[in-house]
Amino acid sequence: MFYRLIQQLRKKDDANFKLMSDRIKVNQMYKLLREENQVLEDQVTTRDSQIEAMHVVLRATLEEKELILQNIITTIEKELVARQQAMEMHKRKAIEFAQSAADLKLHLERYHAQMKEAQQVVAEKTSSLEAEAYKTKRLQEELAQFKRKAERMKTIEMSGTLCCSCGL
Known about the structure:
98% helix
């Protein structure tokens, strides 16, 4: 019986040893798993920090780009307003110039009509003047002929008077 008790005790010791050995292995595995878990948690924390840092940088970059784009939009809107105002001003000036051109065209037509009337008057006066000049020339020619005739007559009369005074 003693032998059996020893055997039982040995079996129990073996079982205890095996259990202790298993417990040590489990504890080691648990420790390794905890360390591995800690490493993974550290990696997750690091990654979370990196992701958060990236989000911060990305947010800042997007905010900066948004601000730049808003400034560009504001500038473009101002430029658009300025161009619209310039276009309206040019339209008004174009209308004014068109009216001015129409007025000038009317004046030009009046001046052309006045010029044609003046040309007709000048043509009539020129024609009248030429006729008067022709008449004057004819009268001068007649006067010259009369003067020559009068001279001849005087010459004839003088020669007749001379002849009469000499007794011929």
